[in-house]
Amino acid sequence: MKKLQAYAVAEFTPPFILSVAVFTFVMLLDKLLDLLDMIVTKGVPMRTVLEVFVLLLPSMIAVVVPMAVLAAVLMAFGRMAGDLEITAMKASGVGIMTTMWPVLVVAALMAGALVYFGNSVLPDANHLARNLLLDIGTLKPSARILPGMYVDDIEGFTIFVDSKDDLTGELGGIYIEQVPSDAPSRIITAMHGRMEPMSANRMRIVLWDGQMHELDEGDYRILDFENYTIELDRSEELVRRERENRGDREMSAPMMRYTIDSLSTESAMLRDSMRILGRAPLLALASGEPPFADLAGDSTEEGGGALEPRAWYNVSRNNIMMRASQLRILDDRSASAVRTMNKLGVEIHKKYSIPVACIIFVLLGVPLGLSTRQGNAGIALGVSLLFILVYYLFLLGGEQLADRGFLPAWLAMWSADILMGALGVYLTIRSINEGNPVPIPDLKPLARRLGLMREE
């Protein structure tokens, strides 16, 4: 018996490794163009590109492993059914569950490993990958220039622009300090300009309608120009920066729960502030005081008398608008906190629902493999892709609904597991009963005993 169980696991392992490799390669195709662009356009060293590749792998593994489990189960049990090995086992009195439960145990171990992986390895890998990609983006000279910020990490220049169009390269409100090593320092201002790439490492900025201020050994000169060109080189070294802020996919479940608790407290405080702010005029009226007195300041004229009706109307109108603006700001902050909590809740449940899919895909894959009776890798991958597509469509749709608050996070992320798990259990029971309908227990004796049904 133990040999048969070990045999089932041995049959499952090679197709699992093959499926992981195939699905990972397919997912990498989407990233290959970006990696090639780093080498060709930005001149990123091959070693750094390989580092990006390694850091992107964990995010793929977390999704690929459940997919590979389903494909491997289909291939392993389909081949055993096609070679009549399952028939021989049944003839020897060995049921399907005897060969199925070792694979379930392996899948459960994988699910546990993925939960640990998703909370310990994946967040840090995603954080490092994001930081590295942002740093690589600054290798391109045009990427360093940011609107509204002084940029001083381009050698010999300090650049400030009011506006920047990333598509056309158009600049507006340009201020440049140039400190060349062998020439006097200059301050260049221009109303308009444009960034023009020259190569992967070089770029020029063409300026129009500007002035050049130059200080040379005490002599100060001003030169007006219609057109002026500056050439910039990118740094040959990659400058790495550590960023503390993390997105939802860069945090573990405990980190996200802590953030949710903080946002929940903040949201409650914002709602209390909104209630107090909105209730203040009503309380003032109930106490006989004029409304908005707290915002009106000094409500008396110079002579100490009350404001005239027209003046009081103007004060009240202005304060109503001020209070409405404050309420709108508080409401926007509260809504933003709720949206963030929804997204974090989705990510928490996703860290557990996707690993559990490993177990569910075994329940689903064994009966499907026995019914197809094919060990062909192409057929198994095709059938698995169909169910995987449905599964991840449920996940993506549920994520969108949960992020907008239409569904609770747990239902959005676990609905695919619940539905496919129920289907897998049903198909497994049918396979155990040789394809006969799932037997329904006779509840009549119990109903008669409870007095819900009369004796015939």
Largest pleated sheet: 6 strands, antiparallel
Distance from first to last alpha carbon: 48 Å
CA-based gyration radius: 34 Å
Number of domains: 3
* Class per helix and strand makeup: alpha+beta
Low-confidence stretches: 293-305
Number of strands: 6
Strand proportion: 5-15%
As laid out across the biggest beta sheet, the strand order is 1-2-3-4-5-6
Question: So what's the overall shape?
Answer: flat
Q: What's the structural blueprint in terms of helices and strands?
A:
Elements: H1 2-40, H2 46-82, H3 85-91, H4 96-120, H5 122-137, H6 141-144, E1 151-154, E2 157-164, E3 170-178, E4 185-197, E5 202-216, E6 219-233, H7 253-286, H8 293-296, H9 309-372, H10 377-403, H11 409-432, H12 444-449
Antiparallel strand pairs: 1-2, 2-3, 3-4, 4-5, 5-6
How would you portray this structure in words?
It is a single chain. This protein has 456 residues and is α+β, with helices and mostly antiparallel strands. It has 3 domains: 2-134 and 348-432, no CATH class; 145-233, no CATH class; 258-298 and 307-346. 63% of the residues lie in helices and 14% in strands. It has helices at residues 2-40, 46-82, 85-91, 96-120, 122-137, 141-144, 253-286, 293-296, 309-372, 377-403, 409-432, 444-449, and strands at residues 151-154, 157-164, 170-178, 185-197, 202-216, 219-233. It starts with a helix and ends in a 7-residue tail after the last helix.
Short structural description:
The protein has twelve helices and six strands. The chain has 456 residues and is α+β, with helices and mostly antiparallel strands.
